[in-house]
Amino acid sequence: MTRDPYPTSDPAVVTCGLPYANGDLHIGHFRTYVAGDTFSRALELLGQKTAFVCGSDMHGTPVTVNAEEEEDTTPEEFAYYWHERIESLFPRFNVEFDNYGNTHDEENRELTKEFVRTLEAEGHLVESKIKVAWDPVEEMSLPDRYVEGECPYCGERARGDECDEGCQRHLEPGEIENPVSTVTGNPAEYREESHKFFRLSDLQEYLQEFIDRLEGTENAKNQPREWIYGELEDWCITRDMDWGVDYPGEPPEGQDDLVLYVWVDAPTEYITSTMQYSERVGPEVFDWEEAWQEDGEIVHVIGRDIIQHHTVFWPAMLRAVGYNEPRAVLASGFMTLDGAGFSTSRNRAVWAEEYLDEGFHPDLLRYYLITNGNFQKDIDFSWPKFQQRVNSDIVDTVGNFAYRSLLFAHREFGGTPNVECSDRVIDRIEAAIEEFRAAVNDYDIREIGTIGVDLTRFGNQYIQNHEPWNLLDEDPEQAAQVVRDCVQLVKAGAVLLAPVAPEKMAALWEQLGEDDALADATIEAALAPPAEPFEEPTEPFESIEDDHVAELEAQLADRIESRGDEAGGEDDSEAAIDPLSDDRISFEEFQDFDMRVGRIETTAPIENADKLAHLEIDVGTETRQVVAGIREFYDLEDLIGERVVVLVNLEPTELFGVESNGMLLAAGDQADLLTTIGDAEPGERIQ
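Below the sequence we write its predicted C-alpha cells.
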C-alpha cells in the first residue's frame, strides 16, 4: 500500500465482518454493512478501483448448537440455509457486495489450510496443553461457546472465548472462571488437552510497528495497544469439534478430530471472496493478487467487539504468510433500541425483514445508520428518532429542494436554463467536493453522509433568498441564473449522496435527464452541466406519518411484553442502558458538585498507560492538570481547543505517576465527552 491519499493507483478491498450463518439479521447488524457499502461507493466515486467483499461465517460453536436444536439437520445444512437467506437480504438494503461467499467454500478451506501449513513450515506453530471445559454430568467436552462464566480480567459475565459484556478481551480456552455449561446448566470443570498454538510473540515487534501506522477509527487504533505492548500470549488455533476446517497437519497425540478455530478460517474468506470476484470479472478488471500480495489498500469495517481479531491475530497471520497488511480498520459502536439493548430472546428488535415489510425504503435506514452519530460511538434507534431525522433531513431538505427546483425549472424553462452556473455556486460545490475527499481520507463515515445534505440545505436557503418566481417578470435573466444554479446544486447533491442513498439518488439522477448511470459517475460529475431538457419531476420522498410511528411503537412494546415472562426478562444484547437509580440526592447535595466549563489547552499520552491521557485544561481562574481515560477513543491533538465539562472539586489523585486534579465528564463506555452547545467561557459553572 502507498499511504497516499485516496484515490491511489493501487486496488482497494473493503470488507465487513462476516455474519454468522445461524439466524436472522436485525437493523443493528446493518450498521457495519451499510457503512462498508457506503465507504466502498465513496472510494469508487473518487475514482479508486475497489472490490467490496464479504461472506457468511459457516463454522463455529453457534452454528453447531443451533443445528442440534433442529431435528434431522446437520450443521452444514443449517449453515447453508441461513447463508442463502442472509445473502439474499443484503441487496434489498442496497448493500451490494462485489462478491459474497462463505467460509465453507472449498476455495476458502484450501486457502486456510495453506495458511496453516505455511505457519507450521515457518516455525510459528507450537504444541501445548490447555485447560478445556468439561461437563462431568453429561461426560462431554465443551467448546468455547458452550461455556459461560466470569472474565478473569474484569469480573463481568463472559463467553468462553470473549468477554462480550465487559472488557471485550479475547479469552483463551480455560481462562473463564466459574465455568458453566450452556448446554445443561451444569457447573463445568477443566481438563487438559493438547492443541496447536500460533506464537504471536514471534511477531510482537512487527505488530507494534503495524499499530502505529494503522489508519481508521481511534478505538481500532488504540484499543489493541494494551495487548500488543504487553505480554503477547500464544493463540490457540485448534478446537475439539466435528464442524469446521480440518487441521491440515499432524494433530497432537490423542486429538484425531481437531478443526481450526473459527477466527482462522473466517478472515481468510476476505481473500477468498476477492479471489472469486477476480475469477469472475478477470484480473484486468480487478487483480486479487495485486490487492492482497502486493500493494493493495485493505480496509476492514467491523463491530468493536472484534477489534482484537482484526488488529492482532489477522495482521500477524498475514505477515507470517507473506500477504499484505490492512491499511485501515473502522470499528463501529453498538446500537441500542429505545435506549436499551437489542434482545433476540425477548424479540426486542426491529428485524431487517420487518423494516422492509412496513414499506420503508432501505435508503432511509441507510441514511439514519450513517449519520446518527460518530461511527465509533454507540447510537440509539427508535421509530420517533428515525421519523424525525428522515423527515427533517431527507424529506424536508433534500426532497423539498430537489422537487421545487426541478419542477420550477421544467415548468418555466423546459429543463435547465441555458446559462452558465454562477461562480458562487461553483465555489460552494467545489468546497463540498473537497470536504467529501477529506471525509473519505479521514474515514469519517458520518461526514460522508452529511455533506450532500448540507449542500442541498444551502440550496434551499439559496432559492428561498432569491425567490426566482418573483424575478420572472422583473428580471428574467436573473431568474434563469438562480434556477440554473439550483439545478446544478440538485445534481451535485445527488452525486454526493449516492454512496449513502444509491437507489433514491439514481432515481433523482434520471429525473435530471442524465443519460449515464449515476453508479458509473465520479465525483467530477457534480460540476458537469446538467442535461438541458428533462421531464416533469415527481416528489422523491414521502414523509413518515405520526400514526404509522405510533403504531410501530405500540407493536414493539406489545411484542416485548408478551415475550418477557417466557424469556425470563434477560437482555442478551450487545449493549444496554443502565436502569435509572432509585436513590435520590437533595438539591443541597447537588450544589456540592463544582462543575465548570473548561477548555483543553494541551494533550499528551501517558507512558505505559494505553488508555490514559494527560490534559492541561483552562477552568477560568487557573489551568488544571487532569488525567483521563480517553486515549483509545480520540486523536488527542484534535481535542485541543475543545470545551468540556470538568468536576473541579474532586480530591486530587495520582495515576501512573501523574497527579490528576479534576475529572472530565463523559457518557458511556466510549467516553463521549460532555461539552456546551454555545460559547460558554472557561470557568462558567454548570447549574
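Residues 498 and 505 are 6 Å apart (CA to CA).
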